[in-house]
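User: Show me an example of a complex going from sequences to structure tokens.

Assistant: Sure. Here are the input components:
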Amino acid sequence: MSLEVLENTINSDGGFRFGKPLETPRLSLYSIYDNRDYFCDFCHEFDNKRRVRFLSHDIVSDKSKLKIQKALEAFKSPVQSDVNVTHSYVDVTFIPNDIKLSEIVEAIESEGILLTPDKSPQKALRHDLMRIGLAAFSFLNVMLFSSAEYLAGDTPMDTRFVSLFHWIQLTLTLPVVIYSAFPLLRNSFYGLSSRRFTVDQPIFFAIAAAYVYSVVNVISSSGPVYFDSICGIVFFMSSARFFQKKFLEKTLRRLKVFDDISASFVKQSTADADVTFLNVSKVLAGTQFFALNGDTVPVNSFLERGLAEISYEQINGEPNTKFIKQGEQIKSGAILVSSRADLRSDEAGVKSYIYLLKKQTIETFSQKTEKTLQVEKMAGLFFIAVAASAVACFLINLENLSAAFNNSISMLLVACPCSFAVAIPLAHAKTFNISLKQGIAFKNSDAIAKLARVDHFIFDKTGTLTTGKSILTKAFVSNRPVNLQNRTEILESKDWKIVYEIIHSCSQVTDHHAVRSLKNFLSSHLAAMTTSTSVKIDSVKNGFGIKGKWSGKDFTLGSKNYTNIQSEVDYNVFLTIEGQMFAGFLVEDSLRSDSLSSLDRLKSQQKSQQKRLSIISGDRSRPTLKTASLLGIKPSDCYAEKSPSEKKSIVEELSTLGRTAMIGDGTNDALALASADVGINVSQGSTILAQTSDITFLNPGIACLPAACDLAKDCSFSVRTAFGFASAYNIAGIVLAFHGVLTPLVAAVSMPINSVIVSFLAVAFIREDET
Amino acid sequence: MEILIILIPVSLLLSFAGLLGFFWAVKDGQYDDLNEESEKILKHDKKI
């Protein structure tokens, strides 16, 4: 298989599906396709069977899967359904001679799952453009003819021309109403048939009422006509929706970053030296596969043989490469820098870090959040109120039929609640877009709103604030403190040579982090020294220490208790020779370079709001307090030596005092993350954390936290501002329209302008962090 | 004023021709991917 074919396969299969169609065709449309003579671009026919893919907002959980299965079980002829919860679609395969497509749709929709056929997006784009083009053409021409009438002012125009111009306007507006406004009609109709109030209904009713009224006036050659308003509103609406779609597409393109990280296939060798490709979702623990230079390793895997050089640059942005020996693990998302590596997966593909992260990000965009649903409901209630006011307005002015029509149509046009429904998705889309660029993946829109309101940040210590790697920070040898920066002193010291020989031998029998960090330090300083064979290890007690002989003398390396040292509280690893203290070391975790600056930025952001910062750690209290003091966190806000369940109860307790955000990187933080109001995962590979957190930072440490908080606040502010403006505009508009001040033309033009302003406000305050 | 009887249909026809031209361009796929042309040079040539 050529590389090109492979690339195409991956792109076509691994591509995102944006499961959020703006228009929802329903049952009646499908009955057309029961007749197989009609072409339908979303049906695939094979072996006397037919397969149709439907997208749906409602396919979000296994429950919907069961509902679909239950709906299809009722048919005598077998109907196979393949539900994909991640991408929110269902593939239905059936025999068209036995069963009708509309029956299947009816059965599934009766379970409350509304379906949309998976049409080609290209075709939809072309229709959108042609709708806008037609509306623009008609709008300009109709304006030309209507402006002649407006400009005539008090001088009456020749009635023949007036009549002719009206008829021309009527003809030009007809295709706009039929073709350009068709999505509005369809959405209103589907909304009504499913007893939902949508934002399209008031707009469509206003257009329909204005058109019918104008046509009647043209035929009867009396009264005003509103063709210019109709064309204008359709043109502005279609354009606004088109740009909204385009903006969301742009966000989607940013999301493709995840597609690049997550190779959708792994390569397997076959007996005849050919290559087969296995979808990551089908990879099981223990599956053997291989990667070539430049390939992404999609699942945690072990290197089967040889040596491999990898880079985690895609995951953590670090350009360094790392050598992996046979039997060692390569984490999901690594890129192979060296030549071919044979690998064996350590986990099922569907459980891999990258796969889950990708799934979450798709969910973020495909699920409507609680808040958005609330807003839609509000918009619906708003419409009922507006429709009632319009009817009331009509009835009050009934004596003057023309004024009654004018005022009620203006009211319907001006009070369109679309700005409400546009503001939230736009603000969230922009936030997702920027946050992904900065390495912040919000699991859903709620996470943005919640982060903006957090009062208390709780940090895990090891791995989150610190590097999670022990290093030698302080030492003494032969009762003399050592300057660890002075390489010459260490190189020339005979005592250090003894230490080196003992540590080197010990490192071969234990993998304890203290010994490993001592060995790393010594190897970097004393690489020139040769190892000695004068060391003999007698006993190793895991977690305590090692006993042995050096040049015939007994030595003990280990903790204070193990080595029977009485004093020296500043050190935690000791070496005694013949019972006498020879050397002491302080091996500890070091702060991440960005922790201090990130917390400083966080504090400076929130001076006025007095946010609390805490540390919860499983580590001992001394290093925890030390970290806290380095970062300026109060000792009373430090919780040390806590087990995962203790961490959880502390977070729960703190959550009763205010909104909390827990930031952690280890699997031991998963419970705490899930119980906090906002869980932030800074791990680079924990699948459990990826599942239980609301936000994932794609770079190690908390460097992204201030930017994430900024973004969340900007987003909330923008939504509030847009809401405020839209509310003020609508109330003012309704009052003016009620009193007949607002003409339908002004209403028609100002309504889309309002939408544009609200859209602008919704995104204007969300800025990319320059720092 | 009689000239309008000619001018109006002519202007409508001209703009209608413009609209048809736009429809043709859309159906021809010229608006399908506005980024494609700028990125084309960076992509591999397709095998025949």
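The lines above are the inputs; the final block is the predicted structure for all two components together. The radius of gyration of chain A is 34 Å.
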